[in-house]
Amino acid sequence: MWIPTEHEKYGVVLASFRGTVQHGLPLEIGDTVQILEKCEGWYRGFILKNPNFKGIFPSSYIHLKNAHVKNKGQFETVIPVEDSVITEMTSTLRDWGAMWKQLYVKNEGDLFHRLWHVMNEILDLRRQVLVGHLTHDRMRDVKQHITARLDWGNEQLGLDLVPRREFSMVDPDEISVTELYRLMEHRHRKKETPAAASTHHLFVHVKSLMSANLGEELEVFFHIYDGRENRPLSERFFVKLNKSGLPKSPEKTERQCTLFVDLGSSDLRKDVYIVVHIVRIGRMGAGEKKNLCSVQYRRPFGCAVVSIADLLTADSKDDHLLKVYACNTESEWHQIHENIIKKANSRYNLSGSNTGLAVALQLLHGDIEQLRREYMVLFTRGVSITRKLGFSDVIMPGEMRNDLYITLEKGEFEKGGKSVARNVEITVYVLDIDGQILKTHVAAGSGEPGGDEYHSLVLYHNNSPRWAEQIKLPIPVDMFRGSHVRFEFRHCSTKDKGEKKLFGYSFVPLMQEDGRTLPDGTHELIIHKCEENTSLADYPRYLKLPFSKANLPSNNQTLKGTKESFWITSFLCSTKLTQNGDMLDLLKWRAHPERINDSLSKLKEIDGSEIVKFLQDTLDTLFGILDESSQRYGLKVFDSLVHIINLLQDSKFQHFKPVMDTYIESHFAGALSYRDLIKVLKWYVDRIVDAEHQDHIQQVLKASEYIFKYIIQSRRLFSLATGGQNEEEFRVCIHELFMSIRFFLSQENKSTTPVAQTQAVFLRTFPAVYGELLKIFTVREVAGFVRETLGSLPTAVHADCLEAVKLQCIAKTVESQLYTNPESRCILLPVVLRVLQAHMQEQRDLVMCARILTSMLSLIKKEENGTAEPVVSEEVELIVESLLGVLLRTILEISNRPQPAGPAMRLQFQDVTGEFVACLLALLRQMSDRHYQQLLQAFSSKDNLRDFLLQIFTVFRILIRPEMFSKDWTVMRLVTNNVIITTVLYLSDALRKNFLNDKFDYKVWDSYFYLSVIFINQPCLQLESFSPSKRKKILEKYGDMRVMMGCEIFSMWQNLGEHKLNFIPAMIGPFLEVTLVPQPDLRNVMIPIFHDMMDWEQRRSGNFKQVEAKLIDKLDSLMSEGKGDETYRELFNSILLKKIERETWRESGISLIATVTRLMERLLDYRDCMKLGEVDGKKIGCTVSLLNFYKTELNKEEMYIRYIHKLYDLHFKAQNYTEASYTLLLYDELLEWSERPLREFLNYPMQSEWQRKEYLHLTIVQNFDRGKCWENGIILCRELADQYESYYDYRNLSKMRMMEASLYDKIMDQQRLEPEFFRVGFYGKKFPFFLRNKEFVCRGHDYERLEAFQQRMLNEFPHAIAMQHVNQPDQTIYQADAQYLQIYAVTPIPESQDVLQRDGVPDNIKSFYKFNHIWRFRYDRPFHKGTKDKENEFKSLWVERTTLTLVQSLPGISRWFEVDKRELVEVSPLENAIEVIENKNLQLRTLITQCQSRQMQNINPLTMCLNGVIDAAVNGGLARYQEAFFVKDYVMNHPEDGEKIGRLRELMFEQAHILEYGLAVHEKFVPQDMRPLHKKLVDQFHLMKSSLGIQEFPAYVRASPVHFTNGSPRTCRNSVPNIISPDGGRGLARRSLPSYPAVNRYSSSSLSSQASNEVSNITGQSESSDEVFNMQPSPSTSSLSSNHSASPNVTSSAPSSARGSPQMAEKHKHSRENACLSPRDRPVSAIFPNPMDPAQRAAPHQIGDATLPRSDPNLSAPDKVRPTPSSWSLDSVKEGAPSFSDSFGKMLCPPVPPRPPYSAGSSAKNMRSQSPVSASRSPQKTTVPPFTPSPTECQSTSLVSNSPVLSGSYSSGISSLSRCSVSEASGTELPVGDHPAYPLPPPSTLPNSVSSSSDEPIRRENKTPPPYSVYERNNPRRPVPLPHSLSIPPQADPPALPPKPHQLRTGSMKLDGTSDPRVPRPRPLPRKVSQL
């Protein structure tokens, strides 16, 4: 049976458990589990990191830990009872673990490795803490280290700052907000600024001396030397080196290492040096030979110097090699280091090139105790301490030191009867009072232990030696009296024996008779002569002798006159002995009572260090004198006491304050002193007001703290001794003293007066007195003293400094022990509040005010859990009453104030804001219901309450600002939010009661809602973005505050009633933002508000347009910021639809919701696409979808324009320059050429509409240029030029014309790549909305073939599955939860057949029309119908042709557009054969032309093509078609195919003729080695001819057709027949008669694949420049894409024979059905490369009216060709606006002659009635001028897709009958008289033409025009002919081309065949290019 556990609540998993049992919970080692129940060795519970999944596990796998349970029961939480540092470490490491892996993923290697090391380090430290074997100090250090590491890691990973106290995390609920703020601030500061250390220490480690010529032992002395004052700063450190230059005792590290301690910051400067003296021990001369002499001398060796400043810059751990300079002149040894420092070292040699002293030097910072902790190894291993000479900057009490330093300076000796100077050595001894030598008390320096004696250096042959050697005599204090130092002088002989002969001595006593020590300074000692064998043991005898020349009596001339002297310098550093006589006099005052007055007066002159040495003795002396003769010396003693107390305020002696405190507590015995002290103090206070000089009084008041300490202690001693006598008297004295103080404080003075300064001095020290008074008086009494004293200060103080001091005094009061007591607090609080209020109202001393307030509120928090609940409540009430309003105002003021410059000022500014905010939060957190009620009732009027509410809401908004607290202060932010929401809940009640119904106040409610919204939206409450552990903690502590606030908003909204209308539409955006927060509960609460808004808006205005508009506007901006998701869309839809079910306005509501939901779909798709890295089709497609939605469905022009620019940027980034141009054109078309001013928008400055349109035009032209879409650029150039011309801006006009010319050049000179087109189907529900279950045609990138495109699409949609067939998918695929891609290549069907079918138009020009402005694409699939004939498969080979019509033409604003319509037709075998032969003929013509015009470098393509056609004939070839279609059976069974059979025959004849001509050309150019092949081809051709039954070509074939002259089409118009000549002889005449009455529809058009380079100047070969434009598009839609898909110039996978032959290999038959292959990649394309719509096929020999193509059978031919003045859009131009096209027309001809307007009867108007389609929508109010896609022709439907009139081709006012290309709308511009400019030829002269565009109008009618179609406009103009003189005759013709059988150019001929040069040719009007 499962039993709930009592104590087993928490455990750690010891071993992994798989959880294979039923209900088993899988566990991993190290997991922590919470246990709920137990049962027979099993537990039930959950893993803490996944509390939702509960299960059972064996109890043996769990190690139980003690834990504390909160909220026992169902929702209990378990907290392990362990060190909080351990808990924090564990949770932090878990969080880091996940983030650490992410660092690896993000490739942040450096941080990854650093964090790894830190994590390991923390784990190691955690083990140490867990084991629990650490000492208390060590544990503290380890915890400090851990928290430092945790903080570092958190900072690096951007995690939160953790507030800590004593290394433990703090619970923000358990401390006041002000305290929390202080902790956060402290941690923040700590992170920012480490404090600079004031004390420094130099670590020296001697390694070795490297020198070639050692051989003797060395002594090395280090000391620190001040180069500025030329004196040593420290004692010497002494190291002995052996003969190898290594330390003598390597095992004793303390003899090689030292620490020069207590260097002040002032000692770390450039002129402080480490000086090293090296002394050798050995023979007198360094180079002497070894002799028997064993005597060793100390001799100079060398010196080295290094500046301490160098160590600050160098790497501290480097070893330094110090240069050692050898001493050449021993007389300068004493100053060798000075000379080296002064760079006068040229006189010294370096003791060897590689000589140097290797030393490790390191500067350490901080006090010595800190170093002991940080460098434990150093101190445990052993290091000697080398002290400073004298005391450090700070003297510590208890420091024991008694060191006498003696420096052997110099000596003066006589020769002593010798011829040479002496070698003098001094031996130093210290003797005690008994004459015994003190052992080990003579030290050469630290490092080596002291010895019994010291031997000086020996300077060779020098009677005036200067040693400058410092020795240290550490003599104990008790041995000082009576001790003396003796110096013995010996001459060292250099002879064999090397004796040392004594010749004199000196001595010096260490203490004088009066107890003073030897004074510091230089002493000239007398040298007493003696013999070598003199015994100096008889010390009393020589001690009677004088020792110093300064002490000699004046009559002792003998000793004074002697020349021999010895100088020493002494320096005593002692904490116990003094050299000061005045000090000794004072201490021995009883011996000389008469000197007391003098001694007290001289006390102030004694050095402070002497006084603190004898502090206790001095104080005893003073109080002794006071007790004995207070009347006489009271004042003097008081002054002396004041002097000593103030001395301890000095930073050097401040550490002696505890010494004085200890003295007062333990040693002070002046029980009667209090009377005198009070009396003198009162005397001084009473004199303040009248005294002229306040300095001394100020000194007295400065010392008042300690004076009171003495008074109080004295009184306590007296009470103890007498049992509390005279208590009343004492109290009266104190009261009188305070009355005097209050009197002097109440004086009003200006700040400059001395009294005011004295008042300030008193206020500074006053708070320190409280603690003393409390020792005798009650809390209430002391509080009374303080209140009255502070209350006595004048209220209107003029002194700023005094005000500041007063505040400081208040601050100290609030921080004092007195204020912590609730009893005294209620007395002091009113005073404090009064002062604070006054200051805060005037905004003065805010930093101090914040400090006081912080301290006050911290105390209140502490008391809250205590017993004094009512007291706290009263205090809160008082503070709220007096400070809440002013606190709010202060926060508002300082938040709105500009931040001061300078980092320090800014820091202070931030501090004060933060502190005030913390105070406000702390205060609000303390307020209870009662407080809020009192607060709200206290407002006298509604206006005051309103102002208060507005103020507090504004402050809350400030608190929510992200910059309010540092980024990582999440803890503080959550506390803030908790306080805000609690307060808002209280205040919302007041809002409802006071500001609703008739008292409604919009401003307050608005402020409330605004606050609520930004509260919910702030980043620190978005729990979804936090780690699970952090989210769990926040939810446990505070819950989800967003939901609470959301419910509050809803509740308040419901209370508004009809006032809701005030917030519609203003609050729609903010509320929408709230609903987008990804919190389901919040969304459920808030979304219904929109229904409410719709309802109220419907009531008010009958619709909810405002709601809709606002929703749509805000959705875009909010969703682009990343808010909202699919769930939100569904929730929004479902909640609102449910809400409006019963409403009367349900229909319109559903419509709105549907619109908004659809917009969300698109916005979400857009956002998802934009998250991807590179620009891809998905991004662009999505943007297009959204842009269209804004335009068509929402009509939001501004959003539309914004997305136009977003789309433009995407295209530009992807280098889709053509698409970028089309996109920008959309915006361009919304603008007009007007001077209307436009505001600044996006990146556009404020400018006129004209300027912006000009800028756009130029940008678009530039992009068209980059995209090689020059034809479109030319149109815009013309439009701009027209504008410049109308403004007479000829400078820009000239530039524009030059630009236009350059674009023409580029068309002719530069090559353009032909793109592939692919059809893509996106099937399945997983695709974004704008792609789902739709098919598109996409324009491929340059050089992109099907495989590459397929791969690109699969990369863009990595989860998609590529479908391997081309059949339409079924419903299962459509509804599948997956992504399916179906891709295959399609062939474009160009619209501009006219240009493509004109002979001689260069391929450069044609290529544009083949692949631009394409609406339709086709895809062919071959299949067999009926029985397949194995002998001849062509009989049953049908083609299934799919034609796809797009919603917009390509290229456009996107690289892909959706398929609007699919048409499926089947092409019969006969039609198929016709197409194959047509295409082959076209291919042959093209190759022949290229070969003739020498455009081909290589003849191979022609050879291969000829071979493919002729050679195939051997295997059947055309014969197969004959067998299939020319047999009787076929003709009988298919009587309807008679015409087609005829057509096939003609084409076969034509092919034979072309082949014959091709062979003739081939013969001319074929190389010698290919002659046999050519011969073979000729033979096979004759066979082929005979097989076709062609003996001779028919007449119409023999008649020579027109030939091209130099590839120019214009010379053909009037040319005469020319004899076929492969040699290319010139034509004899210039006109050609119609010679072949066949249907032009089927003729191949272009025989020239590339324009000749010679045709660079278009007008150069034409009779009139207007001829340039007389190229009409043909209505034929015969696709010329065989050039594209089957030309031998293009790589094809099919062999040429397969492409040329009608036969098809078996393996290719069904290839199209099996794979997504491009047309050029499979043989089928070669066979059926150029399909035609069946609708385009009509009977060939129609005569009469039928010769004119028709689109509408109801119209007669004359109607159709009726001349029209313009072919512009039939949409009328906006009334009154100047016609766009007027300006457009102007740029096509010179500005003169003037252009008369058209008559009102212009027949352009008549054309509207013929339009089968109604006008489609346009994106702007007025129609936009359209663009012509090409400068050389006017194309039928390329860009003006939805102009119904121009379905087949369109006229731009030009005769359109050229080559039967008359469309139903074509016509000529008429002059005013309505006479045609061109006489129309009678029908009989026209060729038999088939109306090939009958499908065109049908397609247009069924098509929904795109939302931003471009319309043509009327632009009446008169054509201006080019003067005849300007025409240029044609140049010589190249070889003639074979005839195209049915060629006739009716439009360019008169009936008699002669041209009329006078008839002006009209020019085409420009059209718009912005086709979508």
Name its key features:
1972 residues, alpha+beta, seven-stranded antiparallel sheet, six-stranded antiparallel sheet, 65 helices, 40 strands, 42% helix, disordered C terminus
List the topology elements:
Layout: E1 3-4, E2 10-13, E3 32-39, E4 42-47, E5 54-58, E6 62-65, E7 67-70, E8 77-80, H1 84-105, H2 109-131, H3 136-156, E9 164-165, E10 168-169, H4 177-192, E11 199-210, E12 217-226, E13 231-232, E14 237-241, E15 257-264, E16 272-282, E17 297-307, H5 308-313, E18 319-322, E19 325-326, H6 336-341, E20 349-350, E21 356-365, H7 368-374, H8 376-381, E22 384-386, E23 402-412, E24 424-431, E25 454-455, E26 466-473, E27 484-492, E28 500-509, E29 521-526, E30 528-529, H9 539-543, H10 557-561, E31 565-574, H11 581-587, H12 596-602, H13 608-613, H14 615-628, H15 630-647, H16 657-667, H17 673-687, H18 695-702, H19 704-722, H20 727-745, H21 754-765, H22 767-773, H23 779-791, H24 800-815, H25 817-820, H26 822-841, H27 846-864, H28 869-896, H29 903-926, H30 929-937, H31 942-960, H32 970-994, H33 1002-1017, H34 1028-1038, H35 1041-1056, H36 1068-1075, H37 1080-1086, H38 1088-1101, H39 1105-1120, H40 1126-1139, H41 1146-1170, H42 1177-1194, H43 1197-1213, H44 1217-1230, E32 1237-1238, E33 1247-1248, H45 1249-1266, H46 1270-1286, H47 1290-1309, ...
Parallel strand pairs: 15-22, 36-37
Antiparallel strand pairs: 1-3, 2-3, 2-6, 3-4, 4-5, 7-8, 9-10, 11-15, 11-21, 12-13, 12-14, 12-16, 16-17, 17-19, 18-21, 19-20, 23-26, 23-31, 24-25, 24-27, 27-28, 28-30, 29-31, 32-33, 34-35, 34-37, 35-40, 37-38, 38-39, 39-40
